[in-house]
Automatic annotation (TrEMBL):
Reaction catalyzed: a uridine in RNA = a pseudouridine in RNA
Active site per the UniProt annotation: D137
Keyword Isomerase tagged: yes
Summary of the function given for this chain in its UniProt record: Responsible for synthesis of pseudouridine from uracil.
Name of the protein this chain belongs to: Pseudouridine synthase
Keywords associated with the record: Isomerase
Keyword Lipid metabolism attributed: no
EC number, UniProt record: 5.4.99.-
Residues of the Pseudouridine synthase RsuA/RluA-like domain: 90-241
Species: Butyricicoccus porcorum
Amino acid sequence: MIRTRIQYEISAQEEGRTVERFLRAQGFSRHLLIQTKYTENGLLLDGAPVHTNVKLKAGQCLSAAIVNGAQNERMQPIRLPLSIVYEDEDMIVIDKPAGMPVHPSQGHYDDTASNALAYYFAQQGEPFVARSVGRLDRDTSGLVLFARHELSACILAEQMRRREIHREYRAICTGTLPECGIIDAPIARAHGSTIERIIDSERGDRAVTHYTRLTVKNGFSLAAVRLETGRTHQIRVHMKHIGHPLPGDFLYNPDYSVIQRQALHAYRLAFHHPITRQQMEFTAPIPQDMIQILA
């Protein structure tokens, strides 16, 4: 299904490149390029069909179809709370509540952010393919980015690989956290567990976390946290490692006296728009269950 088209005006610097080389530089993966090439009128040069080995000239207009994949029939559209922070035809950013998984998994087939988005787009008569760019744990609240078509997904995935998508968290930690610091401790899967992670200098992958203490109140510290690496449960494991675990964390600090889930929130998200290249930045307010700990 052709959802829309994207047009490129060829500059003097790009003259002589083949269509394939040009589109690869724009973020098309090999798979997406093949898919577009074999779509009827998928590639047009000055309005006429063109092969990918044709060399481009300055001033020409290259048009590529943006193909949207078929919706997964097992993805049930379910009416669920959905807080949309931003959306356009290329991407959508939501503020995910705690307790909601991003994608369906065992035991969670109809209560996820993907189900909610499938319902939202079904009401508009649009198919939806869940393409999240980065994930959050089920009980971590905050900003989640979804690509709305294959090209956006390719470009944003490359930004993620290059660490050009910047995410900042707010975490509440037990005790008085140092004013700032860097935690550099390798993380590995715990023996005999499918989900728990531990610090392991022999088996672990390098993991680096930067934090800054923002305030201390009621025996807890609010911290701004930035990840240099992206390991599973990284913030939760690292804060436990330095003696300041997150309250409400069922794996690493099951103390539910002040909150019923890990006190972690994806607060800020910054990246370049996949199509326009415009700098984008979003924030989501800290949820009430975390605010109450410091009230």
